TrEMBL record:
Record SMART domains: CHRD
Domain of life of the organism encoding this protein: Eukaryota
All copies of domain CHRD, residue ranges: 37-184
Name of the molecule in the record: CHRD domain-containing protein
Organism: Knufia peltigerae
């Protein structure tokens, strides 16, 4: 028994002193926490567009949209923080927080709908957050030609052209968008 314990202790000591695996080198095939790409978007009211017309969102509001994409599994993880946003959400989609497909200066259809950051408040000092992961197939609740705008969409499309996508949130007071930011 003592010999087995010494062998086990020696093996554990060697394992602890082995070179640690770096996060960027870790790619377990079945883990959504391996990201093939990441995005940090700072969304501001001056970037909001209605069609092609600048339509500023809520003055003083700011959004931090952090995304980790695993295109191998069609997973997107999100950590969204909104500050200076007041009032309730409003959108024809399932939620009022999205990734849309469109270049800077243009509007486009939502492709992914995220849970709205909470808590809802009229106090601009309240910080709203939403954190989690979503796996395709995606739905938005918005129809174009009778088909949901999320149908057939994969996160790989974002990786192939991040400049062709933006993220935003919509409120009842700022329906075109309270803040907006391009992914690239």
């Amino acid at each position: 028994m003592k010999t087995a314990s010494l062998i086990l202790a020696s093996a554990l000591a060697n394992a602890v002193t082995a070179t640690p695996l770096k996060w960027k080198d870790w790619k377990p095939l079945l883990s959504p926490f391996y990201f093939t790409s990441t995005y940090h978007v700072v969304a501001t009211p001056d970037q909001v567009i209605n069609g092609t017309t600048p339509t500023p969102g809520e003055p003083g509001a700011i959004g931090h949209y952090n995304y980790g994409i695993n295109s191998d599994l069609d997973v997107i993880c999100f950590n969204i923080t909104l500050m200076g946003v007041t009032g309730g959400y409003q959108s024809p989609a399932l939620t009022a927080t999205h990734i849309h497909e469109a270049v800077a200066g243009a509007s486009g259809p939502p492709r992914i709908a995220f849970p709205n950051p909470l808590p809802i408040s009229d106090d601009p000092s309240v910080v709203r957050r939403s954190v989690g992961c979503l796996t395709g197939p995606f739905t938005t609740g918005v129809l174009a030609n009778g088909t949901d705008t999320g149908v057939g969409f994969t996160v790989k499309e974002i990786e192939e052209n991040p400049a062709g996508f933006f993220t935003d949130s919509h409120t009842a007071r700022y329906i075109p968008g309270v803040v907006r930011g391009q992914l690239s």
